[in-house]
Write the structure tokens for this entry.
Amino acid sequence: MIAAVLLLALVLLCPVLHAEEYPKMERLTTEQGLSQNSVFAIYQDREGFLWLGTRDGLNRYDGYGFMVFRHDPLDSESLPWTSVMSITEDSDGNIWLASFGRLCRLDRHTYRFVRVSYGVGNSLVRAIQGDRSGNMWIGTMNGLVRYNTHSGRFAYFHANRADPRALASDTVISLYEDHDGLL
């Protein structure tokens, strides 16, 4: 009787024990070619590449190795800065990057960077998200910025307690567009 109870307990516990197995993980460090071990942003594009923003550049990982993009002060089409804080992709497959008050686009065909200037000073960028209309939304520690990629114009949104439609806080750390197109 005791053996049957123990056997039944083991049979019932097997799925629970199996469910607690760790997922398959691979550690990626500078030893595997990552430019720097402090990773601030990770994005997987439509082609399956992983893009990692670090304190020392942008890294594209294809599952086997890294392609590293760094700032070169002598090349105006290189990564415009050192640290990459946020990454997203637009509808044309271009990779967009944001950092401390800066925004740029990586042309996927030429691997050249196009700098976009906007006036948020040195505000820490925490998030970037494209929308269906082709806008890039930039979440900063000093409000929300919309960049219209067609017109090149910027709109700035800040918290206003008197306006219930305004941001609740100027600190925007994450952005997402849902299936209905709501940010």
